[in-house]
TrEMBL record:
The lineage of its organism: Bacteria, Bacillati, Actinomycetota, Actinomycetes, Pseudonocardiales. Pathway: Pyrimidine metabolism; UMP biosynthesis via de novo pathway; UMP from orotate: step 2/2. Keywords: Decarboxylase, Lyase, Pyrimidine biosynthesis. The keyword Acyltransferase does not apply. GO terms for biological process: 'de novo' pyrimidine nucleobase biosynthetic process; 'de novo' UMP biosynthetic process. This is Orotidine-5'-phosphate decarboxylase. Pfam families: OMPdecase. Residues 250-260 have a biased composition (Basic and acidic residues).
Amino acid sequence: MSGRFGARLARAVAEKGPLCAGIDPHPGLLQAWGLPADAGGLEKFALTAAEAIAPEVAVVKPQSAFFEAYGPPGVAVLAKTMKVCREAGALVLLDVKRGDIGSTMAAYTAAFLPAGAELEADAITVSPYLGFGSLDFAVEVAQAQGKGLFVLARTSNPEAQGLQNALLPNGKTVAQDIVDTAGAQNAGVGPLGDIGVVVGATIAPGELDLSKLNGPVLAPGFGAQGATPADLRALFGPGLPGVLPASSRDVLKHGPDPESLRAAVRRTRDSLGPLEKGQ
Ligand SMILES: O=C(O)c1cc(=O)[nH]c(=O)n1[C@@H]1O[C@H](COP(=O)(O)O)[C@@H](O)[C@H]1O
């Protein structure tokens, strides 16, 4: 697929709906699937999940830490998993939550965004907590390479509230300031900018104004962390414009049978509403 990330994402969502399915090989899930806690078990888990799930959704989000935990063989499995997802037609959002000083961000960017990189992703998650400006180079590379970023703004975990809802001297919350800075990068870009934000599906409605973001919103917390389709609509509006509800464990717990996994991902996808409302 060619073109800007936001445009590719909008097409994929129009075709397959907004669900982002996570591949999070938790040790407990490997055990529940009857797999050993080693790189061989990881490979069986991740490839089974990728083959069953990726054809059904617009976006797959492998969680890098669960692969890195197995060392170099785990990272090799991650590369294989990402390839299987892309070949099945899904966009790959690699959840690596990177965030560092600008010059080091350049190295992270080189690892994940250029075409042909071993761990090439369509988009990655990044942390702005060293200052949004520390991500400038990553923003530039993503926009130039047709790739995307999802910047942590208001995360789904309960500990995040104090920091992310703190007021800045400009009168905005930290999270709102991050959303607005991402929005400035997306200004004037159609149909959707390339710089998304992460907003947990578990947060209270009304905390954030997303009306000027003009970019995608990754909304984890749907499923295992308790958020329902009704919560998503209350938080983001009835059509969920640009919103990618993300679910990992709630789908993966239906393995290892590929048919059960496929049925679970279809059920989850369909619970979000008819396709034309997805974008
Ligand atoms: O960036 C993320 O993906 C993320 C941000 C956030 O605010 N909350 C959150 O849960 N996540 C990730 O989303 C996934 C949620 O998994 P489940 O709770 O199993 O659906 C995990 O991979 C988390 O690391």
